[in-house]
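Regression test case RT-17, inverse folding.

Input:
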């Protein structure tokens, strides 16, 4: 299978030797069946890496999609579905001062953003502070009857079947998110795993309210927060009902980011009683369409909410940050084949050098062999990881798991 790109990229590494297709390998490895070798992928890189690593600069690599081709990673894609604000809020720049941009972002938040490099925005103020604010936002941006929430299935199918061009969005709202900026084969011919994005039940609510705003609103306006979660769920269900009958998905994905290094930012009672029932509704739809692997991207220490994630149907953690939680083997041992992990290679060890990298990968070896676990750097690779250390890591990973 060739990648189709707007620009030509010559891979610097050979694809790992294989006797299975990427799709067969992914599905068998993640369902604890025998597989030919480990699925080979990485999440991505900080913006600084593209400027500082010579291997990227000299080959004109500026995106993770291009990097995946450069390194000949296995192919995996997700059908990205925008289930949030439609129409989106237009971003506006308020001012620039002290190396920061002050903006109104796409979720109506007043935010402070660094002018250069990779950084987390600092949110100054939310546009939703009362139930009346939410009522207005809901009416203006979360109407399920808005034409922007209708997915042109035939247009998606035509795009997926065209292997001569890179995929472009079907319209301004919905489309395919390319992990490799290539094209998707018809399901009958597809040789790589394809996922369906299932949105966010509480992470995007946090984004709209801010961390502090959500912490207060759960107690001050519990009905409002639950209605926000319910709205997120309905928007996701609306998209899934349109897409699931037409495509043969191998997995589902999601995003929450509601944990930090000391655990979740919401109470366990709230998570269990408000969020989990919505997960269960989505999980029912996924399982009815033979989708049995559902991961969510949630950084931080997820241990307190993990039993509730599993109860709701989310059975895979991604990218599983080690430093703020535990070694992935701890949870894989505890939960057995009920749990799957994608990620879990401590990026801090990649920065330390070959000895630390080797020790880290050796500690993961038995879990890779057992299945249900695909190792890669546990978030975007940061610039304190040198190019030399990163290439050593890729070489060692191939020798051990390829």
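Golden output:
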């Amino acid at each position: 299978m060739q990648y189709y790109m707007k620009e030509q990229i010559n891979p610097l590494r050979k694809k790992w030797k294989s006797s299975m297709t990427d799709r067969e390998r992914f599905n068998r490895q993640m369902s604890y069946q025998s597989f030919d070798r480990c699925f080979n992928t990485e999440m991505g890189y900080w913006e600084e890496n593209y400027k500082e690593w010579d291997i990227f600069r000299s080959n004109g690599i500026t995106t993770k999609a291009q990097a995946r081709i450069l390194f000949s990673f296995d192919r995996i894609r997700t059908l990205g579905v925008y289930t949030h604000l439609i129409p989106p809020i237009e971003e506006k720049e308020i001012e620039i001062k002290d190396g920061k941009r002050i903006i109104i972002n796409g979720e109506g938040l007043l935010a402070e953003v660094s002018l250069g490099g990779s950084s987390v925005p600092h949110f100054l103020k939310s546009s939703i502070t009362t139930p009346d604010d939410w009522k207005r936002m809901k009416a203006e941006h979360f109407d399920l009857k808005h034409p922007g929430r209708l997915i042109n299935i035939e247009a998606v199918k035509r795009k997926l079947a065209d292997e001569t061009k890179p995929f472009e969005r079907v319209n301004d709202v919905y489309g395919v998110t390319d992990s490799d900026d290539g094209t998707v084969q018809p399901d009958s011919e597809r040789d790589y795993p394809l996922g369906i994005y299932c949105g966010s039940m509480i992470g995007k609510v946090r984004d709209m309210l801010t961390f502090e705003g959500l912490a207060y609103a759960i107690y001050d306006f519990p009905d409002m927060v639950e209605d926000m979660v319910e709205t997120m769920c309905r928007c996701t269900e609306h998209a899934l009902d349109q897409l699931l009958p037409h495509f043969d998905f191998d997995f589902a994905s999601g995003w929450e980011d509601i944990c930090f290094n000391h655990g979740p930012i919401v109470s366990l009672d709230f998570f269990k009683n408000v969020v989990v029932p919505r997960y269960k509704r989505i999980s029912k739809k996924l399982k009815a369409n033979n989708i049995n692997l559902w991961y969510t991207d949630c950084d931080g220490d997820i241990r307190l909410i993990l039993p509730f994630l599993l109860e709701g149907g989310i059975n895979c953690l991604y990218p599983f940050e080690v430093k703020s939680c535990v070694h992935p083997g701890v949870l894989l041992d505890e939960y057995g084949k009920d749990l799957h992990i994608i990620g879990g290679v401590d990026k801090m060890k990649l920065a330390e050098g070959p000895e630390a990298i080797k020790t880290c990968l050796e500690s993961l070896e038995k879990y890779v062999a057992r299945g249900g676990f695909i190792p890669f750097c546990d978030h975007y690779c940061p610039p304190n990881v040198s190019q030399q250390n990163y290439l050593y890591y890729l070489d060692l990973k191939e020798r051990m798991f390829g």
